Amino acid sequence: MRILVTSSRNTFALDLIRKLGSIGHTVYASDTYGGAVGSHSRFAAGHLVTSSPRFATDAFISEVADFVKAHEIDVIIPTFEEVFYLAARRDDLPEGVRVLTGTFGDLARLHDKASFQRLAEDAGVPIPETVVVTSDEELVETIARFPRYFARAAFSRGGVGLLTNTGPLAGKTPVEECHPTPEQPWLVQPFVDGPMVCSYSIIVDGRVTAHTTYVAAEQWAHSTAIAFLAVDSTDTLAYAQRIVDALDPGFTGQLSFDFVDHGDGLRIIECNPRPTNGIILLDAADVGRALTGDVDEPIVAEPGTEREITLAVVADCFAEPLSHLPTSLHDLLHVKDVGSGWHDSLAMMWSPATIVHGAKIQHGDRKEILAALGDDIVWNGEPVDGMTSADAAALDAVHAGRV
To answer: Which residues form the ATP-grasp domain (predicted)?
Structure first.
């Protein structure tokens, strides 16, 4: 196949490019800046620099459409929130190209944490008590109800902008900086003790074809995972399929879920309707088979498989040496890097370009840069320029709480 992988700045996008290229597919990469790591992989046949999906949607879609035609692309695989713009403007892409995404309406239901709460409940997936707030006053009143609380915006990602009074992130975000609105609500939950468990799934025609479950052996700034350990997938696979069954028939795409292990079982927290680093725990051949749907049973990552992003582990070690040095040294000595064996070191040499890209948008501490790294490709619940009337109605329904 001839494949275009978008948002190639992400480590998991680079991993996907390597895996698909290594098994014989012709893979191209795209992003909004030339220094994206995946665009410089030796497994990429070429790359495209596009306009921002978020800030220049018409130009982005036009550029992708032209590239698809020029390079006879069979499949587009989004790896970040450009998935929403591609789904909303699917009719403006060349006929015959397959886009690995569900309908815009389903993606909105999954991404909006308020509607996802209802979706999970309807699917019979355990979820913590959740209160949706739409004003500063409601937020203050609600967090006062819980001796220990955890709150975040309905449209958020990457462990950035979390409000809590418990754990290592307690007090990092002042409540005065949080401003829920009806268009941008926040969710408040009681803080649940227990480790975070994450999953990643490939879904083809309404069926999970590959699945990984993992814990973050190490995190960057107590948020984004940078070292990964595969664990048992029995419960998360069943929950993922239940949620897929609650979506439009024939859903095809990639879904990532976060759970917390409460001690008496997993409870689901949120969904990212796109890939995450869980994909790095799958073999290349398995990813290829899963994307075609050519599997009898879901392919599941072997528990005990470990991978790390070595450059990030080193950086975090120096950033917080007292707390992270022992774990970081263990990981550096014993855990396999995501790039190990690929002989593709040039790609990761472009990693600083991603930090520079983020720094151009937000200057300041690590939290601000982390948030800015995807600022030009995120979707925060707004109408998409040029979206169909059906998708606009689906978005209105999500915001109104009717689905």
So the answer is: 117-300
